[in-house]
Write a structure and sequence with these properties.
The complex is a heterodimer of chains A (389) and B (468). Helices cover 32% and strands 13% of the residues of chain A. Chain A is α/β, with parallel strands linked by helices and 389 residues long. Chain A has two domains: 303 residues, Alkaline Phosphatase, subunit A (3-Layer(aba) Sandwich), CATH 3.40.720; 50 residues, no CATH class. In chain A, the strands form two sheets. In chain A, strands 1, 5, 6, 7, 8, 9, 10, 11 and 12 form a nine-stranded mixed β-sheet that branches. Chain A has a three-stranded antiparallel β-sheet with strand order 2-4-3. In chain A, a hairpin with a 5-residue loop joins strand 3 and strand 4. In chain A, 55% of the residues are buried. Among the domains of chain B are: 219 residues, no CATH class; 82 residues, no CATH class. The chains are: A alpha/beta (389), B mainly alpha (468).
Amino acid sequence: MTTKGNGTSGKAKDPVLVVVQLSGGNDFMNTLIPYTAGMYYDNRPLVGIPEDKSLPINDTLAFHPSAAPLKSMFEAGKVAIVQGIGYPNASRSHFRSMDIWHTCEPEIIATEGWLAKVIRHFDPKSENPLTGVSFGRGLPRAMAAPGVVATSVDDLDNYGLMTSIEAGQRRAEDLAIFKRMYTPAIGSGLVMDYFGDTGQSVLSGSDLIKVAPQKYTSTIEYAGNPIAKSLRDVARVHTADLGTRVFYTQHGGYDHHAQEVPSHARLLAELTGAISDFWQDLREHDAADNVSMLVFTEFGRRIKDNGSGTDHGSAGGAFIIGDNIDGGLYAEYPSLAQADWERGEDLAHTFDFRGVYGTLLEQHLGLDPEPIVGGVFEQLHPYKETATA
Amino acid sequence: MADERLATMAHLLRRAGFGASRDELDDYAARPYEEVVDDLVNPERFEPLDEDVLERFYPHIFSNKDNPAVWNGRWFWRMVNTKRPLEEKMTLFWHHVFATGWTKSEHTPSMVDHIEMFRQHGLANFRTLLLAISKDPAMNFWLDNSENHGDAPNENYGRELLELFSMGIGTYDEPDVKDAARAFTGWTFEQPLPLYPFGHYGAKFEFRPEDHDNTEKTFLGETGNLGGEDIIDIIVRQEANARFICRHIYNFFVADEPQIPAWSVTPPQDQEAIDILVKAYTDSDADIRTVMKVLFLSDFFKKARAKRVKCPAEFIAGTLKLTGEFREIEPGLAALDAASIVMGQKLMDPPTVEGWHTGKEWIDGGTLTERINFATARVGNPDTPGTRAIIDKLSGSGDPVTPAELVDGVLDLAGPVEVADETRAALMQLAELDGDLTFGSSTDRIKSDDRIARMLSLVVASREYQFA
């Protein structure tokens, strides 16, 4: 990696990854619906989407009616649907499964997130705290690793230290003392060092990131829901050319054990509307062509509904979205034949999520995936041949 | 360096409560440590808070009882003003363990009752608590037990009961989850009266025998027509239950452990301490009060000063103890909830059933910023009551105060806060900018007051202040 920043000065722009995590276990079977399969309606008398309401993309599969914006993007060739994503011996615990997705370690509890390793690669000396930026509360495990600095921003419009003191000599002196207090010292321990690193990165990051809201203008009017706000923040920082290579956002509430029908519809409408607005926004800023978006969840849900919602399942689905994507269906939709169900009740995965990470790492970010995902996994080929890798 | 006795008492009060003002600390420290512990674990000896005063002075807020921010503000007021600090602390602890969120139900009265239940049973036998939580309507709805039917079981509560509330992953198998879930079929709640026009009513537990699965179940090796109470009895007999709950207690009251999903594969940092707590738990038949007393009297506890990162609620309440705010009626209670949210902890609304990730995971660039900005803005004003008290103590004699006396005096009176040499050196750099503090003229005095407040604001911005 020799290029710096993602400026538009004639040089190829550095590739950027935007991750959207759907927390709680998105019901993939109700997101991309096998709308002509009798078993779907047999097993989902309550949460099944009526055939005449679903949005077909071919003879067997249809989008949920609330995912119309995503369907439009799919038809425009911008969306690679990864059908049947998962990993062996799926954990039905939200937390354990999310841990596995974040660290690529299904057997042990790992301390390094996969995106933290990416950030470390792009910024080995932690020179730019904005190399990885997460919007929302707390840094996801995927972006956390000892010695890796990433920035977590809740409110992009007021980010900085001791903002109650007016800018001036006194505040500058106080921040200098603060900087000295947060200098990592030998022997103070990992947690204190982490605090030190975090304090230092806030100091430098807040100076850098405050230009983003000032520079940004757009004709796109995002909705007011949390995922729309987060993706707008991604757009504001990305278009400010601050050298960010990894963005992370989360959309919560997908744990639909109950009341799935109204709630899932609302979430999918929020999500797909926000994604569509986000890509329009990037195109308006001529800032779309170096970006790939991954939308994932920790697991899919049980085939059979429970009379109100669905319990935790195994295989889910993911989306890779971008202007350099050769849109279409990738991997195989999990077998609907009962004999193939995992544990006799779940869709079985057909593609390992580490192969999807590998696809993004190698074909988009230009990195060797093996040390990041902990092995060699089959990849997809969703990028157009002309795309710059 | 801080007086050891004072430092240990301050530590006890940070852990068993939310800290203390300097005057409170001096009063406690004048008594034997064991006697203070005995009082803390027996909160009934002290008067409960009179909340009528809030109803009287905050009518506009308390006419809006459906808003959780109001109740969280009230909870912060309790943390600061209670004469029963451990009662509030146990309430917060169990809220961390049995993490139940408002977001799903949006039913404030049931969440208020849920928190009050912890206040009532926080030091009780664990069996009592587990039964109460299993009957708690807010929990019941949160984990879909109201959708757990005899002919259509819903595993959510059964699974989390074992994984997160009592045993820990790896101590049971999938069939145990399924049969535990079946044992809780029919445990639901009556629909509460609507807030308008009837007023503030929580939902009530209801058992529906016709919706209960009466067939045979096998749970952790015991077979029979087991019901929910049987499941709880079996759980509390397991060594895994004692170890899991004692580790939770250790994690919250002694020193930060890794996040809960790691517990099945990462042994406790202090196995000996866990063994001591497990013995107290087992010998007392799961009496939480006994365990807490053993804990606070133990050497491993006394040695664990600053081994935990304060959670946002502790950070806010502890800072208010320092600033002396909200001891009288004053506006701004609901704003404390907003402050807590941006630090990553919305009380009554944890992000998932796993609860908040604690320890260093409280801290990232955003939340550290919020903490520092909250604390520095408050203590940095010389007219904040707690800041004024520190100024008065430091300037009492009217004699000049040297830069070293300024640094050490503020560190002592703010906690004591024990800091690394490097931190003290940084504070000395600030203190030495303007030489000795003098109090001769009113101009000198105003300037010196401001310097003390400024020093205090940098002390609360330090790394060390983030630890309990």
